[in-house]
Amino acid sequence: MNREKIVIAGAGVAGVNAATKLVDEGYPGELITIIDMGKDPYHREYSEVMEGFLGAGGWSDGKLTYHTSIGGQLSKYCGEEKAMELFDQVIDNFKRFHPKPEEVQCSDPQAEPDFIKPYFGLRLFPVWHVGTDYLHEIGKNWYDFLESKDVNFIWENKVTDINFEENFISYTEINGNGDWTQKYDKLIFGVGKSGIDFGKKLAEQYELPTEPKAVQIGVRFEAPQEHFQKLIDISYDFKLYRKFDDKGVSLRSFCTNNNAAYVAAEHTYGDVSYNGHAKKDEAFRNNMTNFGILMEIKSIDKPFDWSREAVKKLQVDGVGTYFSPSQRVPSKTSEGDYVG
Ligand SMILES: Cc1cc2nc3c(=O)[nH]c(=O)nc-3n(C[C@H](O)[C@H](O)[C@H](O)COP(=O)(O)OP(=O)(O)OC[C@H]3O[C@@H](n4cnc5c(N)ncnc54)[C@H](O)[C@@H]3O)c2cc1C
Q1: Does residue 38 contact residue 58 with C-beta atoms inside 8 Å?
Q2: Cα–ligand 1 centroid distance for 244 (angstroms)
Q3: How many angstroms separate the alpha carbon of residue 269 from the centre of ligand 1?
Q4: 33 phi and psi, to 5 degrees?
């Protein structure tokens, strides 16, 4: 049996799935340590959108897109077949720890409807819908399982440095009470979007190769659901797209939330952005639909700096601007938080 000590930086979707895969394959949990700056699922607050057990995925809308063309770049590194196999494992885990797995729905559009064709393309692939209000319970069940396998968790500690030459990881208690260091044999780095500045710092320090990415910048659109119902019946999380090749720009919709849709503020690397959720609980039904409209712009030098600057110009005093003809109390999300 391999006795190497594995440290996982970040208890997000990636870190938690990695630990689960290890223990499922018989790796001793006591040799795995997960360090996260957030809290365990029993103590994580609703306002902590990005940090803690399951990371951003813990408060996401729980829509699992079953296709490699959306989201990250996994298939580029491991090939299409392996990527789909890994998707299956992640989806299985969300069902496995779900309190009501029979309620997980799958939307699987088969053809582009004629009424949409003149305006947009509709991407055709399955999306599993877990439900925002179940993610918390899934998190607790999942956490209990990993604890039962003796996986070690270090909560509310921020990883501040990794020495890849000597295999040391340094972290600081969020409450300022202490700085710590651990030695590892293998490191899994999964600090996600909230750790992007830290990742960038390490990439610069160790001169890791980088590759240019397109700018992605978007707005969230909300309207009464009746206007979208025909489309929702075909594809619950409809992914519309349109390309303007001559301008190097493409547009797509993403993360559609229906029935009990709301928006929530999300704090990442000092910026505020807004994301959508949908509760499955009928008590929250508001007959609204919201979705993101994302613009991808190619060939921009330093895309990350560019989009950060653009966001600063478009927001007022660091918070998002907002327009609603009538539906919302101005400047408030459906949960009552100010958005701008
Ligand atoms: C509101 C919202 C809705 C979303 N909806 C969906 C959806 O419906 N479907 C979907 O597929 N995706 C969705 N996403 C995206 C999805 O959540 C992410 O793609 C996914 O969580 C990424 O997983 P990850 O493990 O890479 O990072 P994360 O889940 O972000 O986890 C990173 C973890 O690392 C920790 N961390 C960061 N820096 C440090 C540090 N220095 N030290 C210690 N810990 C650190 C954080 O606390 C966090 O827990 C949504 C995201 C948000 C914010």
Answers
A1: no
A2: 30
A3: 13
A4: -125, 130
Residue 123 and residue 116: Cα distance in Å, rounded?
A: 12
Does ligand 1 lie within 6 Å of residue 35's CB atom? yes
Q: Tell me, using a 6 A CB cutoff, whether residue 63 lines ligand 1.
A: yes
From ligand 1's centre to the CA of 198, what distance in Å? 14
Label residue 94 exposed, middle or buried (CB < 10 Å: 0-12, 13-18, 19+): buried
User: pTM of the entire structure?
Assistant: 0.87
Closest by CA position to 276, among listed 293, 255, 252: 255
Q: Is the CB of 107 under 6 A from ligand 1?
A: no
Q: Quote the pLDDT of residue 331.
A: 47
Mean pLDDT, to the nearest integer, of 119-137?
87
Is it the case that residue 340 has pLDDT exceeding 50? no
**Residue 151 beta carbon below 6 angstroms from any ligand 1 atom:** no
CA of 288 to the centre of ligand 1 (A): 25
- Which atom, in ligand 1's list, is nearest to the CA of 193? 30
Res 328 pLDDT > 90: no
Residue 331 in contact with residue 339, Cβ under 8 Å? yes
58 CB within 6 A, ligand 1:
no
* Alpha carbons 104 and 129: distance in angstroms, whole number: 6
- The torsion angle over the Cα atoms of residues 84, 89, 92 and 98, rounded to 10 degrees, is -120
- The reply to whether ligand 1 has any atom less than 6 angstroms from the CB of 195 is yes
Q: Name, in order, each residue with C-beta under 8 angstroms of 146's C-beta and a sequence gap of 6 or more.
A: 16, 19, 20, 23, 29, 153
Ligand 1 center from residue 12 Cα (angstroms) = 5
Q: 115 alpha carbon to ligand 1 midpoint, in Å? A: 36
